[in-house]
Amino acid sequence: MALFKDWQDFADKKSAEPNAQQFWTEYFLREKDFYAQILKSEPISGTVQALAEKFGVDLIEMTGYLDGINDSLKVANDLESLTAESEVSLDYDPEKLYYNMVAAKAEWLYTLPEWDAHLTEERRHELYKQQKSSTTIVKGPKVGRNDPCPCGSGKKYKKCCGR
């Protein structure tokens, strides 16, 4: 049973339905509860089935949560071979998780009050700025036609690389 493939197919199908917005809104609310519980406890591990039961969701939805947190784990789970009996760990790196939530524009997750126990407000602000600046394109100064060519040839830009 390839849970990850089932999750991808399920998500694609739901996204194509007319009520997709409502489905994803409800999913994100449940995801918010999931992360609130994760942030309140010690690292959690167990089978996918056991974790699904612990969080009160079905296997497919649990796989979605595992997909979302996988890049933030200290040791990533092998999602491609995931089955209900697969042992998984949710031992996450708090800074990496926060950074990835900002990258995903998941404000409902990176503004959870449970973050106070893991990262200071200053550190969260630093991570937020770091992530936002990593996606900002900064153009260098414009080279004028009569400026020396930046390639180092000694010629004017218009006679070298500016042609």
What is the element layout, followed by pairings?
Blueprint: H1 3-16, H2 20-40, E1 45-47, H3 48-55, H4 59-69, E2 87-89, H5 94-103, H6 107-110, H7 121-134
Antiparallel strand pairs: 1-2
Helix pairs in contact: 1-4, 3-4, 5-7
Note down, in words, how this protein is organized.
The protein is mostly helical and 163 residues long. It is built from 7 helices and 2 strands, in the order ααβααβααα. The protein has a two-stranded antiparallel ribbon with strand order 1-2. Helix 1 crosses helix 4, helix 3 packs across helix 4 and helix 5 crosses helix 7. It holds the Pfam family SEC-C. InterPro entries: SEC_C_motif.
Give a short synopsis of this structure:
It comes from Anaeromassilibacillus senegalensis. By secondary structure, the protein is mainly alpha-helical.
User: Cα-atom Rg, whole angstroms?
Assistant: 23 Å
Strand arrangement across the biggest beta sheet: 1-2
What is the number of strand segments?
2
Number of helices: 7
State the share of residues found in helices, binned by percent.
40-55%
> Shape from CA axes?
elongated
Low-confidence region ranges: none
Element string (H = helix, E = strand): HHEHHEHHH
Q: How many angstroms does the end-to-end distance come to? A: 59 Å
Strand content: under 5%
Mean pLDDT: 92
User: Describe the biggest sheet?
Assistant: 2 strands, antiparallel
Return the structural class.
mainly alpha
Output the keywords.
single chain, 163 residues, two-stranded antiparallel sheet, 7 helices, elongated
